[in-house]
């Protein structure tokens, strides 16, 4: 069974993703800087697919599998302490 997103909504600090298995994930917007800095109207332009979420204008793609694994924006290199 593939778990997919059925809807997405936002509040000031969180992206809420409803899943096809009945769970709701609350993901900090800080994990995804493009969404954090987007306008509410830009955030609403999400496209849901079988495997994830896509925002064409923001060039943002987020997989449901990545959210379930607790991964944020993987396009940035992690900062290491010196």
Q: In percent, how much strand structure appears in the residues?
A: 25-35%
Mean pLDDT: 91
Q: What composes the largest sheet?
A: 3 strands, antiparallel
Q: First CA to last CA: what distance?
A: 44 Å
Q: Give the proportion of residues in helices.
A: 10-25%
Annotation, overall tally of beta strands: 6
Structural class: alpha+beta
Low-pLDDT windows of residues: none
Widest sheet: strand order? 1-2-3
Shape: globular
Number of helices: 3
Sequence of secondary-structure elements: EEEHHEEEH
Report the radius of gyration as a whole number of Å. Answer: 13 Å
Pfam family, one: DUF2442
InterPro entries: DUF2442
Protein name: DUF2442 domain-containing protein
Task: Provide the fold topology.
Elements: E1 5-10, E2 14-19, E3 24-28, H1 33-36, H2 40-43, E4 47-48, E5 52-55, E6 60-63, H3 64-68
Antiparallel strand pairs: 1-2, 2-3, 4-5, 5-6
Pfam families: DUF2442
Protein name: DUF2442 domain-containing protein
InterPro entries: DUF2442
